[in-house]
Structures are given as structure tokens and as C-alpha cells.
Amino acid sequence: MYPTLLLIHSWSRWLVLVFGLIAIFRAFSGWQNRSPFTGADNGMGASFVGSMHLQLLLGLILYFVSPVGAKAFETAGGAVMKDATSRFFAMEHLVGMILAVIIAQVGRIVSKKAADPVLKHKKAFIWFSVALVIVLLMIPWGIWNPERPLFRF
To answer: What is the DSSP letter of 139?
Structure first.
């Protein structure tokens, strides 16, 4: 079960990145061009937030079945917090991604509730951009955090 979940979690991150970039681009374009907030704008925001929720669900399941998630705390003496890689997956990645999902969800809610279409685009752009930056910081690229393969097979 663990290898399959890890594979799905690894590949579905690309959905989050693609939907996020498209949603941010549409929001920025709509804001700058003072365009109406269309069903496609709403749908792309929903796709971004929905893919983030899927990733969170998969990640939480992985957290409890993975040797580097919650099981890492079973080691004696708090060794998980002393090892950068273990700490990243046991705490930093988890907290950062939960925060990103919350920010994306709040952005979707506040952008939908705004009365003015331009304000909807502006709010979506700001909130989605912040969420995507956090996601990009917490993906294990190997630059400032542990390196993992970009594509698992």
C-alpha cells in the first residue's frame, strides 16, 4: 500500500502545480484586464483547491503508513528532530502543506464571496499565489530540503 500511495502522491503533485499556475494566471489576467469572473475562472480555482485537498488526503494517509511520517516519532530520544530529513517529512512538510491547503481554501471562499468581479480575481490571485509559494517551498526538490525523485515509477 505504501509504494502505491507514494507513487500517486508523487504524480498528483503535478496536478496541483499545473492547476495552481493556471488558476493564478487566470486570476491575474482577470484582475489586470478587469474581466468578468467566469465559470472557467471558478472551475480552475476549484480544480486547484480540489487537487490540494486530494494531495492532503494522500499525504495524511502516507504520514501514518510511512517510515518517515508519524512512525519516525517512535524512535528514542527525539532523534527525528535532530535529523534534517526526518524532521522535514515528519513535521515541516506536513505543517507547510496543511497551511497551504488552508490558505488556498480561504482564498477560494473569499474570492467567491467578493461582490465585484475584479476584486474576485484580485483575491484569488493573492491567496492562490501565497498557497502555491508555500507548496513550492515544501516540495522536496533537494534545493533547501531533502531531495526526492521528480517522477516516481
So the answer is: S
